[in-house]
Amino acid sequence: xxxxxxxxxxxxxxxxVEHLRALPGVRVFGGGRSSGAELDIDLATARTDGLAKxxxxxxxxxxxxxxxxxxxxxxxxxxxxxxxxxxxCAALREAAPSARLVHLGSAAEYGPGTPDTRVxxxxxxxxxxxxxxxxxxxxxxxxxxxLDGVVLRVGNPVGPGAPPTGxxxxxxxxxxxxxxxxxxxxxxxDLSAYRDxxxxxxxxxxxxxxxxxxxxxxxxxxxxGGRAVPVRELVRTLxxxxxxxxxxxxxxxxxxxxxxxxxxxxxDIAAAGDSLDWRPSYALEExxxxxxxxxxxxxxxxxxx
Length: 305
Hints:
CATH topology: Rossmann fold
Number of helices: 9
Number of strands: 13
Structural class: alpha/beta
Number of domains: 1
Low-confidence stretches: 298-305
Distance between the termini: 43 Å
Mean pLDDT: 93
Strand order of the largest sheet: 3-2-1-4-5-6-11
Largest sheet: 7 strands, parallel
C-alpha cells in the first residue's frame, strides 16, 4: 500500500509517519516544503495541474493530510487550512480519484461547547476564531469533494514533541526554563477553561486506521480524549511531572487569544470506536510524562542543560 503523508515533518505528521513505517507492506511518501520531502508540495501555493502531476507520480492508495496552520493572520490561516484542502481535493480528482483522503480537522470547528455536553459529528459548527473558521472551510472542501474522504476532528493534541505554539508545549518550555528554583514564578492567563486533550500518538493511530480501513467511513469522525479536563489540571499535573518547586500564578497574562472565546470543549468519540475500533489508549498523565521527557532532548539529540 502506498500512502502519502502531507506535513510529514510536523507535530502530527511526524507521529503518523512513525506509525505507518511500523506496518508491513506500506510504502510511505513524505510530502511538504522541507528539504527531506520526497514530494515537493506546498498546499498554500500549489496549482491544481502541477499538484495533480506530482500526485500521479506517487500513485498513492491513500493520502493523509496533516498540513495546517494554528497561528498567523487570517490570510495565512486561509491559505493553508482552507485553500490547501480544496486544491488537494481538486488535484486528487484528476490524479488519483480512488485514493482515500484522510484530512486532519479540528474540534475548534464546533466553536463554544455546552458544559457537561459532548459534541457529536452531527452537532452544529459555530467557529468563533479565524482558525476554527478556516479549518471548517477545509473540512467542507473534503466532504463535498466526492472523494473517498474522511475528516478527523481532533481535540487538543498533547504528548511527545508538542510545539511551543500550543499550551502544553509552551508550559513545558516555561517549566524547563524555570528549573528547580523554589522561588520561580510562572505567570499565566486564565486557566479555567475545559479542553478535550488527546495523545498525539492516539491521533496518529486514528489517522493510520482511517487510511487503511477497507470499508467506507463516515465523512467526519471526532478524535479526542472523550472527557473535558480543566486546563488548570493539565498545568498542575505537568508541573508535578516536572518537579516544579515554584509558583504558578494566573494574572491574566500570556493567555491564548485563539482559545479564549471557548470555555468548554468535549467531543463524543463513540463513532470513531464504531467505525475504526479506535479509542484513546494514553491517560493524560502518560501524555504529559511523554511530553516532559521529550523536552529534555535537544533537536540535534543532545541533552538540555
